[in-house]
Amino acid sequence: MGTDFQPTRESTPPPNVSYQQSVLGLAPNVHPLKSHKNPFPFILRAAAVYPDKLAIAHPDVKHPAFYTYAVWAQRIQNMAYALIQAGIRPGDRVAVITPNWSHTFWNIVDPNLSSLIATSRISLRILIFLRLFVMTQAELGDPYESFLSAGRVFSAEKGWAGLDVEPDENAGAVLCYTSGTTGRPKGVLTTLRGSYLAAIGNVVEGQISRESTYLWILPMFHAAGWTYPWANVFACATQITMRSVDYPLIWKHFLDSGVTHYCGAPTVQIGIVNDPAARPLPRTISAVIAGAAPTAHLISQLEQKGIKPVHVYGLTETYGPFTRCYDQPHWKTLTLEQRAKLMARQGQSFATAQDARVVYPPQDENDEELRDVPKDGRTVGEVLMRGNIVMKEYFRDPEATRKAFQGRHFHSGDLAVWHPDGVIQVVDRSKDLIISGGEVNNYPCELSSHPHVLEVSVVARSHPKWGERPMAFVVLRPEHAAKWKDNHGGFATELIRHARTLLPGFACPEWVQMVDELPVSQMHNIHISKTSTGKILKTNLRKVVAKL
Amino acid sequence: MGTDFQPTRESTPPPNVSYQQSVLGLAPNVHPLKSHKNPFPFILRAAAVYPDKLAIAHPDVKHPAFYTYAVWAQRIQNMAYALIQAGIRPGDRVAVITPNWSHTFWNIVDPNLSSLIATSRISLRILIFLRLFVMTQAELGDPYESFLSAGRVFSAEKGWAGLDVEPDENAGAVLCYTSGTTGRPKGVLTTLRGSYLAAIGNVVEGQISRESTYLWILPMFHAAGWTYPWANVFACATQITMRSVDYPLIWKHFLDSGVTHYCGAPTVQIGIVNDPAARPLPRTISAVIAGAAPTAHLISQLEQKGIKPVHVYGLTETYGPFTRCYDQPHWKTLTLEQRAKLMARQGQSFATAQDARVVYPPQDENDEELRDVPKDGRTVGEVLMRGNIVMKEYFRDPEATRKAFQGRHFHSGDLAVWHPDGVIQVVDRSKDLIISGGEVNNYPCELSSHPHVLEVSVVARSHPKWGERPMAFVVLRPEHAAKWKDNHGGFATELIRHARTLLPGFACPEWVQMVDELPVSQMHNIHISKTSTGKILKTNLRKVVAKL
């Protein structure tokens, strides 16, 4: 890769480049923990140590781009000066409207997406704090390149020393919008300190190193890409970006580009292992999975290809992953089913996280006392988190912030049990919880163990006797779809029978509906692409149910 | 290992153990960065995630000890309560006088070393802040075990929740005494924040993971073991300790105990590769080298055994390693000599460090301006550092502190050149620098490339014409010692001739003296063992020279 790369003249650092910043006023034994923002030490160190290493590649487009760390750092510096020239000042927010890599123009919208601005309810310069490093462009002569080049001229070669350091590590960093699977979007404001430590957490947990190549399948706008944009730079790894999720292209990079790491929701993982190009890999790739628990079948399929699944759990409010399901040495002796059951659990706190716990719901909105549920694997409570990789606040929403931090812990809204070994297992989003006869009964994992099932989602449907009962929406595997095409009722009976062998009666679905695909959340910051985050949009399923 | 381990009753955590701490008063999105001190999150998380994993082993003694993370954490908790019971309060300092592992009694002196107390100029409770986690003991019924057991009783099973968190991450952590190679010892006070980030830096740089086994060859008292005691716990690795540096034992563990990492000065590395038990290893071991640059010969010997040398540089004032000589991908194509020359350089800042730079000396003691030397690989200046892994202060020595932080950077006292690729190379300790005709000329690395030389150290000797000229003290390799036994003059001529092929004339030694061994610094905190830190004590050589 990368032989045809010709950076613009302004993308080349000067021969005597210095990566030193002005630090006047800071105590000599402290520097603010910052992974990004103008200027950010991760990229400066990477450029100082590995100036000629391939930092980021966007190969699969008409004008491929390949930037070394030195060139990338220079482009980021140009961008910083360009923004200053354009009148952007500390505290301003700059919108980023772009796929993982893009033909962008300032400020900062991909031309192919510019039609969205008119329809977006979110005005420009409010969306996201500047994520400089994803702002890159290979095509010469376009408005974005002109913008960067003007920044270089405006800098008058003052370089990094001419850019101020943000001294407050608790200052706001990125503003990401989260919809969850329900409710209206909220702006999650994170900090520089939190981003620094969450990124390092991901490096350590993922064992990302300068030998690593990370493939961007996860959208960068999804909780700021779980801090992986900075994690990879901290580790001096190489990043490959794609404009959209394209399974044949993913396999091309798996096989030809030395990919070692990627992240994705289970729906994306299912797409990967079921692509016709899928085959056993010559070396192990680490796949970080979040958003839902991987099933035994998916784990088996991934492992057969040489992909090692790592199950993590978190929210936009926790910079992405906050807990990890740590596999234990003795798991090696277990059967796949036993192992999958353990791996489906959400786990324990990350290396740089602090507490994750499961507590009984508060008595009322003034109840600040936290009462842990017993670690019995049965009692359901809410997952609470605290520590450096919890967000600062919901942007301009003090009431939602107050509510989210009741008892000085972040309330995830996710319901879970706590196992005797300290491992947390989410039973479902509390908002999606189905109560049938007073019991928690939403177990899509168990349903998807049926060999004909590709994907499944379960929502509540009102029931005359039980209040609510589960209804399953199922996508069949292509090779089995024909068999049930004209016999939906037969498959429903078959699936409920299968469920009864695995689950108590109250947990089995009352109704089963076959669908061609499950509706997927497309709205995080802005509609960008189908399956962009891979989170199943249960609100849409509920609308279907409401009409039944 | 570890089959005969029976922890005391009080070392076993309760069945419902909780690793949660009281965090009242802390903001929900911040927790203090702390790697240790009472209580410290690294060990709590390791015990929560891997309770039954072997955390630390001290196998080669009459009563071997093997502690799992759960047991170790419990013992540390017992220790905390025992100290509270004994009247120790925040701000008190507790002495630690012990080898890397020991039969200790409170407070806290190894019985075999207790005679030192009478002769030590340093009174108890002043030496070192409590390093709880190294306080361990296998022998039942001894005073240390009784002390811990009493702590458990005193705790009344209040557990971790009964111990307060230190909310200030910039509070003092460890007090380590440094002598350098000259001068009187100074107490280096580090912080919790710095220890946390330095430890993570070592994990990332060393790629230490839960699969790793770290062998303690480096003394833990040497700059707090370069933060490796915490780094290994952060990574959930296994640590093996030895009472002293014992080369056959080191090879036993290399071959039989799955060792993956260790640290040591070049003198220790030389001892390792020249031990009769040395042989090619079945898997690569990572050896972190600091204190002096490894020679081409040493690098070659290590690599032949399957030991991968990593050259780092730092001081007690920087928690140990601050820079690393990052090998570049294209080095693979170089000859050993070319590579060794590049690897001998001290490198660039660590992942969690900030700036390391080389500046001209200040004009006077009020000169706060920093003037970088040109990156030409020739101009000599002083190495300055700043950032989170620089010490807080010299303990009770504001004048030394002020002087060390002139210009708001830490002054290492080490002289170096700055290469065009941004890499720093120390030419020698400024205090040891020999000026001959106005030139820097101390190049022991070049001298030790002679095939008959095992070790060499160079000091200044007064010279009628040049002021000072270099005198080399040389230890010959055993296999070549006989040849030169009665012909010291012949070897001196031979070595000077060899030096002239590699060095400019001013840099060649004027005199060569053969010795059986080089004097090694034994005084860091206290005299403990010969070759305890492996730093050659040039003051002793100067005394020899002064009498000539």
Automatic annotation (TrEMBL), chains A, B:
Keywords: Fatty acid metabolism, Ligase, Lipid metabolism. Residues 164-395 form the AMP-dependent synthetase/ligase domain. The keyword Ligase applies. Gene3D superfamilies: 3.30.300.30, N-terminal domain of ligase-like. GO terms for biological process: fatty acid metabolic process. Residues 447-520 form the AMP-binding enzyme C-terminal domain. One of its GO terms (molecular function) is ligase activity. The keyword Ligase applies. Belongs to the ATP-dependent AMP-binding enzyme family. This is AMP-dependent synthetase/ligase domain-containing protein. It comes from Suillus subaureus.
